[in-house]
Amino acid sequence: MTEDPHPIPQHIAIIMDGNGRWAKQRYQPRFMGHRAGVKSVEAIVQHCVKIGVSALSLFAFSSENWRRPSKEVTLLMELFSLALKQQVKRLHKHNIRLHIIGDTSKFSDNLQKQIAYAEQLTKDNTGLIVNVAANYGGRWDITRSVQQLAEKVKSGEIEPEDITEQNIAAGLSTASLTEPDLFIRTGGEQRVSNFLLWQLAYTEFYFTDTLWPDFDSKELDNAISSFCQRERRFGKTSEQIQDEHA
Hints:
This protein is of the alpha/beta class. It has a single domain (11-139, 178-244), classed as Decaprenyl diphosphate synthase-like (Undecaprenyl pyrophosphate synthetase), CATH 3.40.1180.10. The chain contains 8 helices and 6 strands, in the order βααβαβαβααββαα. The chain has a 6-stranded parallel beta sheet, with helices on both faces. Helix 1 crosses helix 2 (30-51), helix 2 runs parallel beside helix 3 and helix 3 (70-93) runs parallel beside helix 4 (109-122). The longest helix is centred in the first third of the chain and has 24 residues, at 70-93. The mean pLDDT is 92.
């Protein structure tokens, strides 16, 4: 039997955009859109478990989002804290592992403790891995990895020529995962906004005008259907790929 050339993407990365606009369309404060967005997260996590996705990376709060109005940032932090309290035991019950990627040192002590508790509680789970990128930036991720290698050069542990793509990747916050197969951005914008810059090198992109609170399992299936119609060559020719699956 030949290998299925169009398997379900095992690692899906999503920029959950459009919460504020969703609320504005309904004459509600932006915060209501973020609250609605949490429910979409629940639905997408459940669907990823159902269809056999291995890892789901969600961009919740970028390192640039601190520039937003202070009131909105405060409300976002409160919502993040509340979501952790409400969801972590449910995630654990369903064998889901939660991992927060990003510079969490900028968060309050209480939120840092919640994050540590959630990760500790779910660390041995073997089902879907949910990465939540919070105070995360792709450039920060790469810079941090290179700094660690620079320290090894400084101490004489390695030589500059020993620095490779492989050991840079090994220092990233997603080092234990395969790179994303499918990247989705909701809300109509078509850019990566400093999310997983290194990891997205050969990822398939899917953009949709659907605002995040309206993104459901059917929308995810549409994105996966688009993914399955593509030929992932990784630098090879179409003929080579076809021969491999013959």
